[in-house]
What we know:
By secondary structure, the chain is an alpha+beta fold. It has one domain (about 35-170): Immunoglobulin-like (Sandwich). Helices cover about 15% and strands about 35% of the residues. The protein has one helix at about 1-25, and strands at about 50, 55-60, 65, 70-80, 85-90, 100-105, 110, 120, 130-135, 145-155, 155-165, 170. The strands form 3 sheets. Strands 1-11-10-5-8-7 form a 6-stranded mixed beta sheet, with no helix packed on it. Strand 10 (about 145-155) and strand 11 (about 155-165) form a beta hairpin. It is globular, with a radius of gyration of 20 Å. The protein starts with a helix and ends with a strand. InterPro entries: Ferric-chelate_Red/DefProt (IPR051237), Reeler_dom (IPR002861), Reeler_sf (IPR042307).
Amino acid sequence: MEEGGRAPTAIVGWACMTLCLVSYVAAFSQGASLSACSDMMPRHLRVQLHSSSSNYVTVHTNMSFFFPGDKVPVTVRSTRDYMGFMLQARKVSNMEIAGTFIFLPPGSKLLTCSEDGDTVTHSDKSLKRNLSFVWKAPDQPIGDIKFFISIVQSYFVYWAKIESAVVAQGGKN
């Protein structure tokens, strides 16, 4: 009788594990969670961090400096498809999130980490490659900034905090 009891138990266990995994994964298919705001790390099961020096993604802006209130175009370019991302601008001086995003491509949405619209994440799990955004600098001086993006290639592979070049605040004394 014992052997007859093992198979149904194994099936129930497998079904429970599968349903739990599917529901956990589905929760992140519509964007990063607020728990990722500070360290930009995905909260998936058993994800594997890859070195940011060996990534296939770059973050560009065509501006080397900005003034308070300026709108700065930001482009994320990739040589491979990816499913998820989180993008932020951060002050070089203290790594605080700064500014807001005012233009988003399809498949993305705003997230509020410190203030409304200061972070962008994916809104679906469609494959992405090259994306364009517009970031608006705060009206008060904040100093130099960098853009940071974390990319999730699959549920188990990601790159965290890929950096842009420094974008200097113009007009500093």
